[in-house]
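#onboarding

Welcome to the new folks! Below is a worked example of what a typical request in this channel looks like: someone posts a single protein sequence, and someone else replies with the predicted structure as tokens. Don't worry about understanding the tokens yet, we'll cover that in week two.

Example request:
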Amino acid sequence: MEYKLTVDDKSEKEIEISVPASELDSIMEQETSKLKKGLSLNGFRKGRVPKSLIKNKYRDTIKAQAIDSLVTKSYLEILEEKKWRPASQAKLLNIEEGDNIKFRLQFEIVPEFEVDNYHHIEIFKSDMMPDDFLLEQGMNELRERFAKIREVSRPGVVDDLVTMDLEVREKDTLKNKQSNIMARIGDRNLPDEINRELVGAKKSENKEIKVGDLIYKMSVKKIEEKELPQIDDDFAKKLNFENTEQLKKKVMEDLKKAEEMRIEDELKESLSHVILERIKVSVPKSLVQNEYEKILQRAKLPDSDANKERFIEIAEKRVRFNLILDKIAEKENIKSTEEETMNAIAGMEIKLNDDNRFDVINYVTNILNREKTIDFLFKNAKIGEKSRIVSPKEAVHDTRSIRH
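Example response:
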């Protein structure tokens, strides 16, 4: 096999490969033998069909499989020789047959880079929220959780729940149509114009509002309000507490634990931003695209220019951060054990089989290794209090996590 690089960027590669035609013939012979073992035709028992007949009848199929095997074999040999870690599937650009089989492949690799200056990173933690604030928030969430919903005959007000049929049109084109959807008046996810229109809405009333180029037609089915319970001893007893004080004590304990976790998560997020600033690496486009598609899938969002503008940058940061974590893990010899991996898979309730075993184990192992690496960086970080003036640059944080 002979080859030469025609594109040799940090992550993007294009390579021309030339292999003697005799090698393709050899692989075709192997493919014919494989097919012969399980093949049966009229007049021949299974495994007894002559190779000459198989070659004549299935030549195109055998040749296609042989070329695929030849391309894959050559590609893997080059990866091994160059010690490249592929970031994408190789794309076959063209193929020519003659005394030599010549073909051109295009693919991306994870570029080589160095990691340093990641010990003793200085990060600053915020104070815990005041106890009275936490308790008030906790009690409000508890009341919301056990609220009763009842229909009202009055016009709608902020925080009421409206059940309606909705039709969205752009000029004469129907863009969306839903029945019996529920919306809370004042929900910030709704356009302000719709919230204002729903205030004062009555049952069986039809509303129409234009927002930009879209026309929203709403048919109100019912108006409901939340009836929040009082936090008293009777309420506490329904939740198996002796009295209100015991309930508040338990809620406060849970809130403090949650607040500690929030602060630690905030610190780890700050740490990730510092790591990204300190360590630079070129990110393969295919990995960024894959991460972008995962974000859309998890959020159940379509691919669009607007969503690409919202999420492509965070996808790039996540891929870059994961590559850095993998490199640090390799340098520090941070690895999860087989037992830890299998326990995690069991906890996710994933059933392993012959088809998914390798991919699932590899995926979960990578997650565990990265979590261990973040913990390693966190334990070695210098954590200070936010008692200093924070610069505007430090104060700007992306609201979408890099680590998730």
